[in-house]
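Example record

The entry below shows one chain as it appears in the dataset: sequence first, then structure tokens.
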Amino acid sequence: MRSDIIPGGVFPDYALPDHTGTVRMLSELQGRDPLILMLSRGHYCPKEHQQHLELAAFQPKVAVAYTQMVTISTDEHHTLQEFRASVGAQWTFLSDPGRTIQKDLDIQEYTDPENDPMIPHTLVLKPNLVIHSVYNGYWFWGRPSVDDLWSDLRAATRESRPDWDLSTPGLREAWAAGDRSPFHGWDRRSREPLTAT
């Protein structure tokens, strides 16, 4: 892995076609939320299926927690669609058959010349693609469990949400004054004052 892909670094903002064929940038998919990013071997690997099945079961919790998920695979478009459907994933899959990321990040799995995949990695990214944690999944036990991800996402969200603890000094006063900027989600709603019903 490239030496700058470490906690505190910034992950590159790659643009790749998604499972619908639309070119998407990672920053666009992340928005202002934490992001779980899987760099995957692809459809042929049973370890990828197992990890993605677990993530598909976890995805409803991820969705209500204002968190995004993205998988990047070296699969061609139709194989990528089959991979996504076979694990019941509801998140975006990106296709990189040209192995742009594999080459740029120096993560070629040279022990598998037949498939030429990326060494699988899972990353948790804070907003702005800032790296919180990196897991090397060449061996299955190197991949994060749901508990690992939950812990990482708790820490990443706490660091990036000023309204993590509503008892933080100044938050109640900001709310009462109509300042929604420290409150995730509320800062993009109508600026009209809230009234009791």
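Notes for this example: Strands lie at 15-17, 23-25, 35-40, 68-73, 92-95, 121-126, 130-136. Residues 165-197 form one domain.
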